[in-house]
Write a structure and sequence with these properties.
This protein has helices at residues 13-21, 49-58, 61-70, 80-83, 188-200; strands spanning 2-5, 26-29, 40-43, 75-78, 88-89, 95-96, 103-107, 118-126, 139-146, 148-152, 158-163, 167-174, 177-180. By secondary structure, it is of the alpha/beta class. The two termini are 21 Å apart. The model has no long low-confidence stretch (mean pLDDT 94).
Length: 205
């Protein structure tokens, strides 16, 4: 079963509907103890890094989430959920992340050509093969809503990139952990295929 972690940030209905749509067994989890029964977890997220990290910890999810990751079970972070995988977020101060993929979350630069937030469809360009992002075409469009980006310490953790004023990591992965800056639940067929591949992934590369 896939568990979607509900830690009080964002509307999870569209994500659950997308996972339901591809015929996967899914539950939205409000109790940290329920995470242990899941084969796979999705950590979603919207809003600011600091408040999301605080809410995740205040609701007691961090130990269970770390235990899941340490057991080698697949974990997917989406948008701010992906950013929380980093060591530190620099949104409205410096905030501690989960540190599951080393790196920092930094602000995108705003300009006339690239206003912030970055909202809409954008190319995602593969940098290396990964079971969850194994797309037949080199470039695929996905839907984004964000103002910050994950800057991994190691280029080996970057699976795909996009460009919006600068080139930034769009899909990151290390071991059994993967994250995407775009919203697969809002990215139509490409997003649904991404979720299907995550559901079929055993956490190895």
């Amino acid at each position: 079963m896939i568990g979607i972690i509900d830690y009080g940030v964002g509307n999870l209905r569209s994500l659950r509907n997308a996972v339901d749509h591809v015929g996967l067994d899914v539950d939205v989890l409000t109790d940290p103890e329920a995470l242990a029964s899941c084969d796979r977890l999705i950590l979603p997220g919207v809003g600011a890094f600091g408040s999301a990290a605080d809410s995740l910890r205040a609701r007691g999810f961090e130990p269970a989430l770390r235990a899941h990751a340490a057991a080698g079970k697949p974990l997917l972070g989406i948008c701010v959920g992906m950013q929380l995988l980093a060591d530190v977020g620099l949104e409205f101060g410096e905030h501690r992340g989960l540190g599951l993929i080393p790196g920092k979350v930094r602000p995108l630069e705003s300009s006339r050509e690239h206003p912030i937030p970055h909202v809409g469809w954008n190319d995602v360009k593969s940098q290396r093969k990964h079971p969850v992002f194994d797309v037949p075409k080199k470039n695929v469009d996905y839907y984004f809503v964000h103002s910050f980006y994950f800057d991994p310490e190691s280029p080996d953790d970057v699976v795909a990139v996009s460009e919006y004023g600068r080139i930034f990591a769009t899909v990151v992965a290390r071991g059994n952990i993967v994250g995407c800056q775009f919203h697969p639940e809002k990215s139509q067929a490409g997003g649904l295929a991404f979720l299907e591949r995550f559901a079929a992934w055993d956490g190895t590369c």
